[in-house]
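Reviewers of the previous submission asked for a worked example of the structure-prediction workflow described in the proposal, so we include one complete record here. The input consisted solely of the amino acid sequence. No template or homolog information was supplied to the procedure at any stage.
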Amino acid sequence: MAEHEPPLSCDCFVSLPPGSQDDHVIFGKNSDRPRDEVQEVLYYPATSHPSGTMLECTYVQIPQAEHTHAVVLSRPSWLWGAEMGANDKGVCIGNEAVWTREAIDPGEALLGMDLVRLGLERADTAWGAVSVITGLLEQHGQGGPCREDPAPFSYHNSFLLVDRSEAWVLETAGKLWVAQKVTEGVKNISNALTIGTDISAEHPELRSVAQAQGWWSGEGEFCFNEVFKSENPPARMELAKKRYSGGTQLLQQHDGSVTAEVMMSILRDKPSGICMDSGGFRTTGSMVSILPRDPSLPCIHFLTATPDPSRSVFKPFIFSESVTPVSRVISPQYGPDDPVRKQPRFQSQVDRRHDLYKAHEGALQTMETNPDAGNALTETLRMLEGQCLTDISALLSGEIPADEELGDLFFDCVDTELKFYQ
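From that input alone, the workflow returned the following structure tokens.
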């Protein structure tokens, strides 16, 4: 891969009953980004905001909502939004880069990653998040540099939005969009348009714009991914299609038996390319969520906060009234001196590695230089993850009670992982 070739490799997955082994919705996503980009995990509590407050997103300001939900986010540490995350209402969202016939606005607007966070902060259902994101697209548009680099690189976005009862695929082209509702079975998206004729909702001007541009005759069935597919797609889009197909096959192999462990194994699959490690890009963060259909049970979100899920630990996070902040997965802050804040942007680089990232980085070096020690460490980390999964299973089955200590779970797992690295 060329040094500046765009990362075209994210994948999102969902399994809804009867695709899942239990009466749970299972969400999964890998975030594939520039190789050295640091991904941090952040928790923000629910907050009320004075009317008229403005919100500073990555590049632009927009009006703030009067109330925002509590969220946990896995995000590239230089930006405001998130690659993936969840809120305290049981909504999960992940996004993907896509290219279409619609021109990409060269100006700065909302990043797709900003839209992920805004959807989580402002919606209490997956469909509500679709409405939030499409409304913001209409008002503010999407665009701006999508990586921490002076070389221009922008894209449009597709999204997988999931709650306890259903999922939505949302695919965009500029301010235009289509959405598809998924209520059962398994579904995945990658860096290609997947919605054809099975459209559940759409921008009111979608078809008239397609006709006016000469992309669609107006006759016969309207197929979004055929009408709007890019005439000059990036070179690696064919690989994205293969990865989408491979991800679909992996999901279908487990259709009816998908669990959090199965979803983790899919995100760790290197032969398919879903777990990416190629040239200047790799999987820099991963997330798996269990969303029980039973609203009396808590949603469980597993996040790595470190690269390469095949060599990382999925650590559980549960929303509770008292969540312990985990400073050791939060990157240093540079305020107005941050290269993303200074004009022109990205003219210098800063060290964004947090404590867990640095410790994990050292562990990866050990794995590569001393395979025996590396295998022993990997086995120890898998035991930690396995114990967490066992405890979560017992929690969801009612064998152990939910208590106020759930807010410490992610903190405790990070602390234990760091001790193993010492």
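The longest strand covers residues 281-292. We consider this example representative of the routine output the project will generate in years two and three.
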